[in-house]
Specification:
Blueprint (H helix, E strand, L loop, with lengths): L1 E2 L6 H11 L3 E3 L11 E3 L1 H20 L4 E4 L7 H6 L2 H4 L1 E6 L6 E3 H7 L30 E4 L3 E3 L9 E3 L5 H5 L2 H8 L5 E10 L14 E11 L4 H18 L7 E5 L11 E9 L2 E10 L3 H10 L5 E2 L5 E2 L2 E8 H12 E5 L12 E5 L10 E5 L4 H14 L5 E3 L5 H11 L3 E5 L1 H6 L1 E6 L5 E5 L3 H8 L3
Parallel strand pairs: 4-10, 20-21, 20-22
Antiparallel strand pairs: 1-18, 2-3, 5-6, 5-7, 8-9, 10-11, 11-17, 12-13, 13-14, 14-17, 15-16, 18-19, 22-23, 23-24
The chain binds adenosine-5'-triphosphate.
Adenosine-5'-triphosphate (ATP) binds next to β11, β14, β17 and α10.
Length: 463
Amino acid sequence: MVKTPKDNDIMSKLVSLAKQRGFIFQSSEIYGGLNSFYDYGPLGVELKNNVKQAWWKSMVHSRKDVVGLDSAILMHPKIWEASGHVQNFSDPLVDCKKCKRRFRADHLLEAQGIKPDLGTMKDKPKELEKCPECSGELTEIRQFNLMFKTFMGPVEDDASVVYLRPETAQGIYVNFLNVLDSMRLKLPLGIAQIGKAFRNEITPGNFTFRTREFEQMEMQYFVHPKEANKFFDDWKEQRMQWYLDLGMNKKNLRFREHGKDELAHYAKKAVDIEYKTPFGWSELEGIHNRGDWDLSRHSEFSDQDLKYTDDAGKKFYPYIVEASAGADRGTLMFLLDAYTEVAGGRSTTTKSIKEVEVMLNFDKVLSPIKIAVLPLSKKPDLEKTSQQVLDSLQQNWHCQYDQTGSIGKRYRRQDEIGTPYCVTIDFESLEDKSVTVRDRDTMEQERIKIEELLDYFKSKLKS
Ligand code: ATP
């Protein structure tokens, strides 16, 4: 029986699977770890790359109206004044005077069923008197800017402060004219970018869900103001469809429209795509109608005219509809969605030695390894044929060669990391020049001629 566990400890099981099987490691682990930073292991980097490539393919390569960009992480500090980040990109913070723990004041209020008024929260309400951990006294609320600062050049003074970008979007806005001029594009047009962003989050947590260094996949779509609502609705649907097309369970996804009181001051409309995690419904991606805020502000602060001129010679600031997703959050949600426990094991013929077997039933596009090549024994002539099979397959797909343990165990190991196909080379293979291909999902096995393997997999997998 296949069951997806609903229990809360799925997160701890996933964290431990991620470590054991080379997906995600705690950063700086041998030094005791660095809180909220993670490293992607050999399988994790493949998975995350596949997520990013699927996004790039759908957002850039399969469209004629969207182009790509890779802007610098450190940018002119005035950009963050124009964007409002220097002034507004902060969270309300309280510290416990006794245990020294630090909390987000809005989170503490929400936990007590009180809707925090984020815009005006300056005075401390009585619900924020005591520390929830040790009942110690909490400090006054102070606004804490989430941008990481560093210094450029040899002198560490105010004039040399630069910020690690807290979002990739600003790199797109400040390159709007460069892209427009160099690519001879017309509205509506999109610019997409994947890259690192940094936020000094007060309360990071839930594994890679909220970290201080993360990767974003952002697309900014520049449109005529009159068309912004239409494109907002279009992008909302297209972005949801992307997750569904990559196999996410519809039941685990929903839209959450932002109420008027939640909207950023410049935003006309905002909707989140949320995923049902073991720690509750959580934002995976935001789709926003940002109006003309970004281009008009950067025009004002840079003294450059970032208006668009249409065919009739009319000048105006395009509105921006953005689809802003997290590559790490996406990867985590794809992992959670694929995580499946099978009580009593999957095989109907042999008894499992484990009470529960785990499999990751990723969409094939996302699987870190597409094909495992498994020689039945270590005998030289079998190894030779297996090596030849591996050589030809790995020209097209990422493969793994595994020759240790019983074949059943090796199948389980591949199920556990989500490999869709296993190719077994046995003694008969030397005679009939065929191999056994096992399908992860159906567990069916097919005998395929070695010379037909490439075509077989071309029909099953994309290169
Ligand atoms: P949240 O409310 O969860 O802090 P946000 O609304 O501030 O997120 P945006 O600024 O809209 O997030 O960023 C776009 C996307 O970037 C998010 O939907 C998320 O996928 C990702 N993201 C934002 N902050 C983090 C973080 N600290 N760690 C990992 N991913 C993040």
